[in-house]
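Design job #97: recover the sequence.
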C-alpha cells in the first residue's frame, strides 16, 4: 500500500479541533508588530518563536510563545493574525477549524477582552470571505492564573455566547483545574461546550478531573490516558474525543517519539481520536504533515484519515445542522 505524502494530504478536505492563535502567528508578522510595539527584536527570531524538535518539557515549549504575546497587544495585530491563519489553513485544505486563545493575555496596552474578541472575529470573517475557511472561536482560561485573573474571560463568554463555540482550560498542568471550577459551572449553565487540556504534561488524574468535575466534552491531548485503564475504558464507552497533536506532543516530551505516541493504539482500541497541529509556528507543522507522519510511522492511509476526520466533524462545537453541512462538504470533496 502506498504511503500517503504531505502533498497527498494537502489535496484532501480537513477539519481541525485544536489550534491556538498565539502559537500560530507568522514569524514575519511577529517581527513587524514587535517593532511597532517598540521592542528590540532578537535575531534570528525563529530561534525564539519556534520550539525545537525536542523540548525539556511543556514549560520550555510555552516560553516560545512570549514574543508572539508581546506582539499581540493590539486589535490590529489580532485581526491580521486571524486573517493570515485563515490563509494558511486554506492553503492546507481546511474547510473548518476551531481556534482558541486567552484574550486576557492581549490587554497589556489598553485593549479589552471585548475588543480582542471582536478583532479576531473580524479577521476570521475576512478570511472566510477571502479564502472560504470557516472558523469557530474557543475562549481559554489559564490553569496558572488565579480565578480572579480568569474572571474577565468567563464574563466575556457569558456576555457574548453567540460569538464563540466553546470554552477551554489551558496552561501549566502542574496546576489543578479545580480552583477554576466555578468558571466552568457558569459557562455550562449557559450551554457553552467545554474542552480541557489534560493528561499532556501531567498524569490521567487531570483528565479525570476534567470529565468528572469540570464537564469537559472533549479533551485536549490526553496522551497519558492509558496510564489509567479504567478511565481509558470510560472514554471509549462514552466516546469522549481526544484532540491529539502528535508533533507537539513529541516536542513537549509528552511522548518520547512518534513511534511511541499512543494515537494509533488508542484508535485501534476504539478511542474517539482526532488529529490536530496545536500550533502553526511554535510547532512548525500543518495538518497534512501530521497525517503524513502518522502514515509513515503507523501505516495510516485514507481509511484512518476519513475515520478521524469524521470523528472531528461529529464532535465539533456546532449545531447538528452545521455539522451535517460540513460532513456533506467533506464527503463531496473526498469523492473528487
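Job complete. Output follows.
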Amino acid at each position: 500500500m502506498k504511503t500517503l505524502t504531505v502533498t497527498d494530504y494537502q489535496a484532501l478536505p480537513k477539519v481541525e479541533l485544536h489550534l491556538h492563535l498565539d502559537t500560530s502567528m507568522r514569524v514575519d508578522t511577529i517581527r513587524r508588530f514587535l517593532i511597532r510595539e517598540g521592542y528590540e527584536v532578537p535575531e534570528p527570531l525563529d530561534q525564539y518563536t519556534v520550539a525545537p524538535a525536542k523540548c525539556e518539557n511543556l514549560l520550555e515549549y510555552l516560553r516560545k510563545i512570549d514574543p508572539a504575546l508581546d506582539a499581540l497587544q493590539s486589535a490590529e495585530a489580532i485581526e491580521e493574525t486571524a486573517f493570515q491563519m485563515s490563509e494558511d489553513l486554506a492553503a492546507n485544505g481546511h474547510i473548518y477549524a476551531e481556534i482558541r486563545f486567552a484574550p486576557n493575555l492581549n490587554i497589556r496596552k489598553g485593549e479589552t477582552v471585548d475588543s480582542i474578541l471582536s478583532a479576531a472575529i473580524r479577521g476570521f470573517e475576512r478570511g472566510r470571505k477571502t479564502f472560504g475557511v470557516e472558523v469557530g472561536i474557543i475562549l481559554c482560561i489559564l490553569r496558572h492564573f488565579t480565578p480572579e485573573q480568569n474572571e474577565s474571560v468567563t464574563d466575556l463568554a457569558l456576555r457574548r455566547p453567540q460569538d464563540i463555540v466553546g470554552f477551554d482550560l489551558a496552561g501549566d498542568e502542574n496546576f489543578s483545574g479545580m480552583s477554576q471550577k466555578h468558571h466552568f459551572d457558569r459557562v455550562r449553565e449557559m450551554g457553552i461546550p467545554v474542552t480541557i487540556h489534560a493528561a499532556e504534561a501531567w498524569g490521567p488524574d487531570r483528565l479525570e478531573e476534567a470529565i468528572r468535575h469540570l464537564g469537559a466534552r472533549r479533551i485536549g491531548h490526553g496522551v497519558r490516558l492509558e496510564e489509567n485503564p479504567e478511565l481509558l475504558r470510560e472514554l471509549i464507552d462514552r466516546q469522549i474525543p481526544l484532540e491529539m497533536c502528535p508533533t507537539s506532543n513529541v516536542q513537549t516530551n509528552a511522548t518520547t517519539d512518534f513511534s511511541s505516541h499512543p494515537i494509533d493504539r488508542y484508535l485501534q482500541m476504539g478511542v474517539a481520536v482526532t488529529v490536530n497541529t496545536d500550533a502553526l509556528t511554535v510547532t512548525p507543522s500543518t495538518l497534512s504533515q501530521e497525517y503524513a507522519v502518522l502514515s509513515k510511522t503507523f501505516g495510516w492511509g485514507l481509511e484512518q484519515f476519513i475515520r478521524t476526520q469524521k470523528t472531528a466533524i461529529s464532535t465539533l462545537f456546532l449545531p447538528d445542522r452545521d455539522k451535517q453541512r460540513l460532513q456533506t462538504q467533506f464527503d463531496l470533496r473526498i469523492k473528487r
